[in-house]
Amino acid sequence: MRAPADTRAPADTQAPADTQLPATAADGQMADVQPPPAVNPNCTLRVPARPLSAQGLATPYVLSGTGDGGACNETNPDQSAFVEATIVNPRTGAISVYHPLVVDQGTQPAVKPVVPNIGAGSVVGLWFGFNGDTLSLRGTRNSLTLGNCVNGRGDSKFGQFAHCNAGAFFKAANSAISANRLKVPPLGVGRDGMTCPSVRDFGVVDQDQSDNVTTTYLATADGRTAQDTGATRNQVADTTTLTNGSDNRLLDAFVDPAIGCSPFTARDLSSNGAPTTSLALNELQAAAHQAAPVALIPLNNPMTRVDGERSALKTNLYRAGVGQPPLGVGGDTGDPAAYCTKLADIGRQRLMADRGFFVQAPSPDAETANLYEFLTQRLDGSLQELGCADQ
Question: What is the DSSP letter of 134?
Fold first, then answer.
């Protein structure tokens, strides 16, 4: 979901300075005034050593600019990157979440991250979200290999998304589910009398479904970051909240509350066991309970194309990262025309059915009046981005 974060960084919340005229040269002529440098839409995230270990999870990820486009700053809402871990023990079914921290290159956290307690035999998966255009992962020694990290297909990055060890995580989680050790709650029924939506419901997906995460961070006035926990909120004053423009957060924090639904939560190991959401929890619940038709990543998803062309390999790499079956399984071929038809029909049906709830709910984007307006614009933009008129 390419929507802006709903909370501004500290610099954006300050009152604007007085407007000044351009400086005048000594000869009385107007001096050349250079426009402010453009914000680099592409950033790089350095993955710490042993990223699947407790110490690796507690080691901050480091954000920097990609190429010659300039620096990247985590507190800039157009450049913020986010990391989310979900952890499962297949022998016991215990499942939990941890939110690793991202800091700017050359800075230290405002509060040292919590080191999680991970049980023996647990399997860790990592997912990444980004508010810019393209996020690249860079390893520390061999951390990308050790973490089984996937950033796209070769040089063709997904864009706002990446994952590490996701395949192993979903295999372990599904094993625990099959053995009846891990209980995935039902979707439930909303105040509208309909089954609550999942991240695989055509009523709420967009052109790049299942992207980004629900992690949030705290930002200080001096540009540092901290994990968003009750403890850190008590330790650091004058913070703002950094959020990811995420399909997962849209569902968990906006759509579900609007219609009286509740997302799947687990213990947050970074926040003393408080309940929290995650991309992986959303996908597990969708896999277990989403009724047909099920929305799965199609071949025309913009994050799975290579040089604008459809790629079965890249689509399957993305699907594996969110626990979806590869193309061809169960008769699903990722057909763009079929996806477009279901998105247009079911998406508009849900919007109209829940209009009364959505117009009273807040939007994740300050530039739209309410959730209904946001979702309407999002659906129209998705159909255009997917090229549905040409399918």
Answer: E
